[in-house]
Each structure stands twice: as structure tokens, then as C-alpha cells.
């Protein structure tokens, strides 16, 4: 089974002023995420899961569904401040998502294979994706079980 790429893209980019993870940066309007997914596919990843906010859903689908649908399966998972483990309470004053650990937790129901996590607004380069894919593909059934605990 090929590994999954989990893309953290729920941040608002408040200092930047918009959703920088979907702003075009390439000569033909490519986003940083486009470059990351291209490199991930070439390295051997088999699925992409986006962690986004529900309010960003349509923007992400408008940009990525048509680009990716014939190349790699894509799923969307939502990180919202009220989605917390049972027994925890959310302060009514909280306005920002909980962070990386919370985002990864939101993907637990859609990722059942080894996976790597990246930030949607960072550029990693093809070598990083190849290193991640090589490592994840080298896991034996025994080490996969150890990493899932």
C-alpha cells in the first residue's frame, strides 16, 4: 500500500492577509501545494488528505479537484475548534485551530496506511518527498504496527 500525504492547510495566513497555501506562485498559476503534490506523486505517494476548515472547502475544491482527480485520490478532513476528543471543553474565547497534533487527529478516520505530514504553505523539494516515501515504503508489518500505537 502506498503512503498518504497529509497536507495541513487550515491556517488563515493572518499575517500574510489571505490563504497563501492556495495563492498562485508558479508561471502557470501553480500553488505551493501543486508543487508538493507533484513531487509526492513522483516519489510514490498514493493518496492526498487535506486538513482544512469547512469555510475553505469550496475554495480548495475549486482549485484542486480538477487538477488532481485523474492523478491521485484526494480526501478532505475538517479541523474546527469544536472538534475535540470526548470529555474536553472548548473555551468560548478560542478562535484559532488547535495546531498540528489536533489536525493530524482529525485525519485518523481516513488514513489507515503510513503517512507523512507537510504544511501546505511550505516548499520542500522533490528530495524530501523521495526520502519520506522511501522510509514509509521500507516499513515492515512489524514496524508499521509499532508506529500505529
The biggest beta sheet is recorded as: 4 strands, parallel
**Helicity range:** 25-40%
Q: Label the structural class.
A: alpha/beta
CATH class: Alpha Beta
Shape: globular
Description:
Helix 1 links the parallel strand 1 and strand 2. This protein has a 4-stranded parallel β-sheet with strand order 3-2-1-4, with helices on both faces. The two termini are 19 Å apart. It is 35% helix and 14% strand. The chain has a single domain, classed as Spore Coat Polysaccharide Biosynthesis Protein SpsA, Chain A (Alpha-Beta Complex).
Can I get a quick summary?
The chain is of the alpha/beta class and 149 residues long.
Topology overview:
Layout: E1 4-8, H1 32-43, E2 47-52, H2 57-68, E3 74-78, H3 100-106, E4 115-119, H4 126-138, H5 141-148
Parallel strand pairs: 1-2, 1-4, 2-3
Helix pairs in contact: 1-4
Task: Please supply descriptive tags for the structure shown above.
5 helices, Spore Coat Polysaccharide Biosynthesis Protein SpsA, Chain A, alpha/beta
Amino acid at each position: 500500500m502506498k503512503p498518504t500525504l497529509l497536507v495541513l492547510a487550515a491556517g488563515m495566513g493572518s499575517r500574510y492577509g489571505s490563504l497563501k497555501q492556495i495563492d498562485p506562485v508558479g508561471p502557470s498559476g501553480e500553488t505551493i501545494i501543486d508543487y508538493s503534490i507533484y513531487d509526492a506523486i513522483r516519489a510514490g505517494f498514493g493518496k492526498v488528505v487535506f486538513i482544512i476548515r469547512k469555510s475553505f472547502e469550496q475554495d480548495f475544491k475549486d482549485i484542486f479537484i480538477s487538477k488532481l482527480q485523474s492523478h491521485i485520490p484526494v480526501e478532505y478532513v475538517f479541523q474546527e475548534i469544536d472538534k475535540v476528543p470526548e470529555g474536553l471543553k472548548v473555551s468560548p474565547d478560542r478562535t484559532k485551530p488547535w495546531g498540528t497534533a489536533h489536525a493530524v487527529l482529525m485525519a485518523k478516520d481516513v488514513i489507515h496506511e503510513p503517512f507523512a505530514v507537510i504544511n501546505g504553505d511550505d516548499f520542500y523539494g522533490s528530495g524530501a518527498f523521495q526520502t519520506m516515501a522511501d522510509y514509509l515504503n521500507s516499513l515492515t508489518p512489524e514496524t508499521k504496527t509499532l508506529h500505529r500505537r
